[in-house]
Automatic annotation (TrEMBL):
The keyword rRNA-binding does not apply. GO terms for molecular function: 4 iron, 4 sulfur cluster binding; electron transfer activity; formate dehydrogenase (NAD+) activity; molybdenum ion binding. This is Formate dehydrogenase major subunit. SMART domains: Molybdop_Fe4S4. InterPro entries: Mopterin_OxRdtase_4Fe-4S_dom (IPR006963). The lineage of its organism: Bacteria, Bacillati, Actinomycetota, Actinomycetes, Kitasatosporales. It comes from Streptomyces griseomycini. Keywords: 4Fe-4S, Iron, Iron-sulfur, Metal-binding, Oxidoreductase. It is found in: Cell envelope. It comes from the Bacteria. Its EC number is 1.17.1.9.
Length: 188
């Protein structure tokens, strides 16, 4: 490559000598950048979602290709975040495709040092048994001669990004179980 060809290919020279003095278009475009395509160009569909990390509830566009999540970006239509995501939200693709993601139920017994794999039915039965036992052990029919019909043995702390319908169902479930400590992470 000769000196003249090298200088002509230099973006600053093209910016100063061409029709793009601010360097916002053709002056800064190289052959390589002209060949680049967006990562989301091959997506089959876009699914609207909400970031799962905090109580803000930033909107996300989830790009899906062949039934697999390929990219997650901020949703410009979201009135909450207007297309922006914090570093954790921008890295939320790892939740679906990251190598450290667990795909099985793991359980560590009390005082145990190792995790063991359980099938889902066994894990759900263990949770149900523990809820029933905690409810039974903490049940109060009355306190100071006032009828209470409640349990102090279980509580609920909901996630910040659950929608109204999910929170409604969780509230109904724990109220039916007799729990009085029903809180949501969004308010903490």
């Amino acid at each position: 490559m000769g000196v003249r060809t090298w200088i002509d290919s230099w973006p600053v020279y093209r910016q100063l000598k061409g029709t793009d003095p601010l360097g916002l278009g053709a002056a800064v475009r190289s052959g390589r950048s002209a060949r680049l395509a967006p990562r989301v160009a091959t997506a089959d569909r876009i699914v609207k979602s909400v970031c799962p990390y905090c109580a803000v509830g930033c909107g996300q566009n989830v790009y899906v290709e062949d039934g697999r999540v390929t990219q997650i970006e901020g949703d410009p239509d979201s009135p909450v975040s207007r297309g922006r995501l914090c570093p954790k939200g921008a890295a939320s693709l790892q939740l679906t495709t990251g190598g450290a993601r667990e795909h099985h139920v793991l359980h560590r017994r009390p005082h145990g040092t190792a995790w063991e794999r359980l099938d889902l039915d066994t894990a759900m039965d263990m949770i149900a048994d523990r809820v029933i036992e905690a409810r039974r052990a903490g049940w109060q029919w009355e306190v100071d001669q006032a009828r209470t019909r409640r349990t102090m043995g279980i509580a609920s702390l909901g996630g910040a990004t659950l929608d109204n319908e999910e929170n409604y169902l969780i509230k109904k479930l724990f109220t039916a179980l007799g729990a009085v400590q029903i809180e949501n992470q969004a308010r903490i």
